[in-house]
């Protein structure tokens, strides 16, 4: 499928982006282990150091790793799946430089000790203004990617009337559109509330409004992280396994659903906040259940695609095909292990989303358990697997060690489970999240002790796995063995895709639908802050 030869491909661009993401991911992984040790009293430092470390860990994992990986991978997918180069040479580098500058500014602010506000930077904690500026630059720097991705899709469609947009690019376009909508909430919060407050231009802001605006972003952002992983599961894994994608249309429906269902949802992050009425929260709870649908469809489609591969390789019977899958192929192993982690991770998500049950787990270790499983475990596992697939194409060198890659993926899988199963349990035993130490009732604390060793072992396994991963990629650059096939190809479908319904070949209608749903979901919950006089303080400052 790929008609673009390496010189016209954004290989260097992708490598630069992804290396920044993975490089800082390495640092943040070590911080994660330190936090585990500190929290369990094994390397007692100060609470201030703990929170500073956790801010850096969260910001890097949630914003830096993801955004750099997605943008770098996104350019590669766009160019190789559409078969044409990026029409602008400098714009993507401008975006890269802006993102990098933002990352450095925010990291310095955190390192200086003035901006220990955790990755969600909820007020009333206030950071130094440079932290918000850095975060804003990081996000704004991703906009050239959004523009390039959407523009290239629009042009391609114009030049190829009636032809289906290749599925990998359809997914990336969904991701770019989702991202544009997602950013609006946090940008308004930063520009109109947090920056003026941190610069001393206003004395007060409305915390309730800030939290709702952040919730607007916090929910869909996790699907911004997820969609590129799904692009790999649909379009790379089945091919690498030696099979076919079970259904191209199912993939399109999933990407559309992720955009439409994940945006008008968010209040489930603030179920226990007092500012919203229960009816709105319940509505968002139902909306959240809808978001589970595309993931269920993905589990089904990816499993069915793998089954085609297993059967083509001679597997028979109900489960015989599983044994025949290429268990030595990193991207396949990564895809399967990630799908397995999605199951318990998603299950925990549905508990969180169940309005009443969230009261039991909110602000406990259950929540970090949920997202370390579904994001740190599942999504990042696909990022690793994808990197193993891309590195030979990007560098022209063979992957240094496929055996080590497979071992690394298993280690991450096992490490994630060993870390998050105890976290789920201690969450149910009321251990709070985001605290440096736990000076609570000794009887309650005593119930947590048994889980200390497994969680530290899990964290240590993940760090070893991260190191193996980085080493393998790094050493691939200097591998003497050249990669014979630098062309990128994507999975073909069981039935060749000749036409698809117009609704599944573009986003115009879906964008309008998102607008309507956003108005339904957020117009009143946000608008009320301006016309209900509850807190004796207006959103933009004192009266
Ligand atoms: Fe979540 C909190 C609800 C998915 C990330 N979530 C978080 C936070 C993060 C996060 C970072 O409703 C913390 C924010 C903070 O710091 O405060 N989440 C959900 C729900 C889903 C969900 C309903 N979350 C994600 C994904 C994330 C992510 C994806 C990152 C990538 N989450 C919540 C809620 C909260 C929350 C509440 C707030 C909690 C609180 O109190 O603060 C759903 O999308 C999940 C759907 C998934 C499924 C699983 C389907 C099963 C599959 C398995 C197939 C595998 C097979 C095996 C068949 C229903 C796909 C194949 C095997 C072979 C051998 C082939
Ligand atoms: Cu959410």
Characteristics:
binds heme-as; 543 residues; binds copper (II) ion; mainly alpha; 18 helices
Question: How is this structure best described in words?
Answer:
There is one protein chain. The chain starts with 10 loop residues before the first helix and ends in a 12-residue tail after the last helix. α5 packs antiparallel against α6, α6 (about 165-200) packs parallel to α9 and α15 packs antiparallel against α17 (about 450-475). The protein is built from 18 helices and no strands. It is an all-alpha fold and about 550 residues long. The protein has helices at about 10-40, 45-80, 90-110, 130-140, 145-160, 165-200, 205-235, 235-240, 250-260, 280-310, 320-325, 330-355, 355-360, 365-395, 400-430, 440-445, 450-475, 510-530. The structure holds heme-as and copper (II) ion (CU). Copper (II) ion (CU) binds near residues 219, 222 and 269.
């Amino acid at each position: 499928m790929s008609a673009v030869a390496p010189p016209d491909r954004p290989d260097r661009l992708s490598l630069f982006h992804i290396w920044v993401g993975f490089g800082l991911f390495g640092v943040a992984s070590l911080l994660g282990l330190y936090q585990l040790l500190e929290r369990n009293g094994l390397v007692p430092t100060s609470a201030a150091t703990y929170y500073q470390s956790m801010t850096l860990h969260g910001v890097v994992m949630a914003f830096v790793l993801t955004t750099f990986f997605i943008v770098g991978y996104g350019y590669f997918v766009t160019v190789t799946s559409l078969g044409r180069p990026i029409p602008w040479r400098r714009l993507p580098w401008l975006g890269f430089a802006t993102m990098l500058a933002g990352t450095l500014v925010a990291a310095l602010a955190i390192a200086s000790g003035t901006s220990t506000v955790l990755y969600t930077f909820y007020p009333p904690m206030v950071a130094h203004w440079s932290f918000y500026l850095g975060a804003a630059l990081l996000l704004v720097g991703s906009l050239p990617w959004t523009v390039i991705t959407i523009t290239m899709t629009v042009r391609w469609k114009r030049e190829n009337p009636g032809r289906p947009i290749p599925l990998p690019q359809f997914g990336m376009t969904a991701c770019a559109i989702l991202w544009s909508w997602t950013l609006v909430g946090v940008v308004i919060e930063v520009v109109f509330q947090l920056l003026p407050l941190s610069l001393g231009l206003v004395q007060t802001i409305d915390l309730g409004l800030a939290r709702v605006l952040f919730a607007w972003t916090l929910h869909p952002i996790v699907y911004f992280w997820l969609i590129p992983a799904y692009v790999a599961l649909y379009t790379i894994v089945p091919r690498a396994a030696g099979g076919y994608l079970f259904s191209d249309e199912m993939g399109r429906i999933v990407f559309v659903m992720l955009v439409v269902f994940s945006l008008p949802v968010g209040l489930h992050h603030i179920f226990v906040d007092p500012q919203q009425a229960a009816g709105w929260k319940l509505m968002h709870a139902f909306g959240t259940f809808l978001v589970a649908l595309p993931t269920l469809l993905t589990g089904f489609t990816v499993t069915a695609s793998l089954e085609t591969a297993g059967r083509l390789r001679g597997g028979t019977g109900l489960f015989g095909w599983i044994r025949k899958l290429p268990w030595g192929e990193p991207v396949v192993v990564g895809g399967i292990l990630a799908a397995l982690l999605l199951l318990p991770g998603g299950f925990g998500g549905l508990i969180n989303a169940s309005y009443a049950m969230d009261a039991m787990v909110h602000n406990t270790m259950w929540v970090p358990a949920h997202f370390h499983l579904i994001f740190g475990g599942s999504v990042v596992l696909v990022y690793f697997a994808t990197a193993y697939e891309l590195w030979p194409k990007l560098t022209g060198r063979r992957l240094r060690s496929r055996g080590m890659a497979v071992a690394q993926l298993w280690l991450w899988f096992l490490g994630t489970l060993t870390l998050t199963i105890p976290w789920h349990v201690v969450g149910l035993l009321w251990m709070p999240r985001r605290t440096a130490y736990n000076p609570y009732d000794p009887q309650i604390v005593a119930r947590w002790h048994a889980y200390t060793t497994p969680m530290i072992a899990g964290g240590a396994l993940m760090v070893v796995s991260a190191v193996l991963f980085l080493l393998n990629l790094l050493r691939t650059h200097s591998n003497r063995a050249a990669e014979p096939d630098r062309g990128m190809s994507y999975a073909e479908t069981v039935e060749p895709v000749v036409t698809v319904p117009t609704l599944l070949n573009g986003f115009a209608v879906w964008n309008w639908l998102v607008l309507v749903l956003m108005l339904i979901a957020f117009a009143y919950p946000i608008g009320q802050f301006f016309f209900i006089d509850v807190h004796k303080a207006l959103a933009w400052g004192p009266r």
